[in-house]
Specification:
223 residues; mainly alpha
Length: 223
């Protein structure tokens, strides 16, 4: 069994390629069902019919459908985090744009709605949500803490408070108000945050980001 509680096909040379293919096909089918019909549609019977993977194999990998859904959700919360420059404003804008991409992706949007809905009634989903939240906010946490260390943000501003001020409006806008994002939404959000909390915003940080810098992803991490 792996760390997610999922059985793993192993040979003397490493993971069994057939088991890996079956797992990938099953997760792809589960993702389609999740997007089309919601979490209740992701069952062993439906996934087997959609993927062509036998039910016996599915039960061996995921003894119950909740395990399959939890692994799928963790996989879907992949964020292409920005690379950091050390400039507070630029780093905040680029990292928030990575979250914007997640929220604008239909799959990510659906996954977030599913896990938030289930977390309120299922402790295991709540744990997955907390793990994804913690992992997804690692880069943003580092940016904020670096800003405090450099004196750009006040010591009184807590990390969780800052994250809430930056991400809260984005998640409310997309998941509650069902609204999209205007072209300059993230820039205006960050600038408003800095006007309210930054100790001092140097003139050079007001420059517009270059097109290359706007789309400079690095390895993804789950949210």
């Amino acid at each position: 069994m792996d760390k997610d509680g999922m059985a793993v096909g192993v040979t003397g040379r490493g993971p069994d390629p057939r088991a890996e293919r079956s797992r990938a096909a099953a997760l792809a089918a589960a993702q389609e069902l999740l997007i089309e019909e919601g979490w209740a549609a992701v069952t062993h019977v439906a996934v087997a019919a959609r993927s062509g993977v036998g039910r016996t194999t599915l039960y061996r990998h995921w003894p119950d459908s909740a395990m399959l859904i939890r692994q799928l959700l963790a996989q879907l919360f992949q964020i292409d985090h920005s690379s950091r420059t050390g400039d507070l404003r630029e780093d905040l804008i680029c990292e928030l744009r990575a979250f914007q991409l997640l929220l604008e992706n239909p799959t990510g949007d659906r996954a977030l709605r599913v896990i938030i809905d289930q977390a309120s009634i299922d402790a295991e989903y709540a744990e997955v949500l907390e793990q994804c939240r913690h992992k997804g906010a690692e880069v943003l946490t580092a940016i904020i803490e670096h800003g405090r260390e450099q004196g750009d943000l006040p010591a009184r501003l807590g990390t969780e408070e800052a994250i809430g001020l930056l991400l809260g409006p984005m998640f409310f806008r997309r998941l509650v108000a069902n609204s999209g994002f205007e072209r300059d939404y993230v820039t205006e959000l960050v600038d408003g945050f800095l006007r309210a909390y930054a100790v001092e915003v140097p003139p050079e940080s007001q420059r517009e980001l270059t097109p290359e810098r706007r789309a400079e992803p690095v390895a993804g991490a789950a949210y």
